[in-house]
From TrEMBL:
Annotated protein name in UniProt: B3/B4 tRNA-binding domain-containing protein
UniProt-listed InterPro entries: B3/B4_tRNA-bd (IPR005146), Phe-tRNA_synthase-like_B3/B4 (IPR020825)
Pfam families, A to Z: B3_4
Xref: Gene3D superfamilies: Phenylalanyl-trna Synthetase, Chain B, domain 3
Length: 235
């Protein structure tokens, strides 16, 4: 994975924690995922997650970043913002699959954007960069429905297509985690130094601990301005 210079220069306090899982089992129930999903729902219900409102550093910093690359964050909300709103409205965190439930729960509990890719479906390197003219995106849940990324928005992209729109607003269909996904890369992000690094590290450690019980091997990495490239080897 590569953090492009144009993005790290525009957002120099960007820090991303990567959790790389080899031979993941995403088809059987994870007790740990159930437990943390319950805790996340309780945190919203009892008001603890209210600390991550729109004016908080955790959310406001992403709104500021979105505006900086030309995206209206109230029209296309950062993933953590959208997830928290959805959980506050419904009263619970939806269950999708064990791995997705785990990173969604961590996202809610720490107020951080989180996501994942099925690495066996990635083509070439993953690069966090500005979108170019001609970049195309196939939205999650809409296979075959292609749309153009807006030039200049921050995206994750591989050699074939855009993998996320508006940095972390929406994932693509091809690389989503499925029950048969075996090699996965999880991401946790901050874009501003107003969000403490130790919170990002704690969230990554918690996610890695959950995933490690259901994978053959788990490694964690950091991605930032001075460490802008991570090589991942998938057997």
């Amino acid at each position: 994975m590569i953090l492009a210079p144009e993005v790290s220069e525009a957002f120099p306090e960007t820090e991303i924690r990567l959790v790389f899982a080899v031979n993941l089992d995403n088809s059987s129930p994870w007790r740990e995922a159930v437990d943390i999903r319950t805790k996340a729902g309780e945190a919203v219900a009892n008001g603890r997650a209210a600390a991550f409102g729109e004016e908080s550093d955790h959310i406001a910093s992403w709104h500021e970043a979105y505006r900086a690359f030309g995206t209206n964050p109230r029209r296309f909300r950062p993933s953590v913002d959208a997830l928290l709103r959805r959980v506050r409205k419904s009263g619970s965190l939806p269950s999708i699959s064990p791995a997705v439930d785990a990173y969604n729960a961590v996202s809610v509990l720490w107020g951080l954007p989180a996501g994942a890719f099925d690495l066996d479906r990635v083509v070439g390197d993953i690069v966090i960069r500005h979108a170019h003219d001609g970049d195309m995106f196939e939205p999650l849940g809409e296979p075959g429905e292609w749309e153009s990324a807006r030039v200049g928005e921050v995206v994750y992209a591989d050699a074939e297509a855009v993998l996320t729109r508006h940095w972390n607003h929406r994932d693509c269909h091809r690389t989503m985690l499925r029950p048969d996904s075996r090699n996965a890369l999880f991401m946790l992000e901050r874009v501003s130094g107003k969000v403490p690094l130790d919170e990002l590290d704690q969230a990554a450690e918690r996610l890695a601990g959950i995933v490690s019980a259901h994978a053959q091997h788990v490694e964690t990495y950091l991605l930032n301005r001075t460490s802008a490239q991570v090589a991942l080897r998938v057997a």
